[in-house]
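Q: What would this chain look like folded?
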Amino acid sequence: MEIVNKAFEFENRKMSNMSTSDRVKASREAKQLILSINEIYKKTKDVQLMDIMKRLTYKKRKIEKRLKGSIS
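A: My prediction, written as C-alpha cells:
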C-alpha cells in the first residue's frame, strides 16, 4: 500500500507558486499514481481506491487547466 501513501502525500502537497516545469512534473506524477492505483483497483474492486483515483484526477485536471491557460 505504498502507492496509496504516495497518493495521499501528493494530495496534501501545496500546488501554489509552482513553475511551469513543476506543474508538468506534478501532472505526470498524478497520471502515474492514477494508473498504478487503477491496476490494483482492477484486482480488488475496492471503493476507497476509486475515491482516491477520483480525487487525484480532479487535482490533475486543475493542474492541466492551469498549464493550458484560458483559451478565449
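DSSP finds three helices and no strands in the chain.
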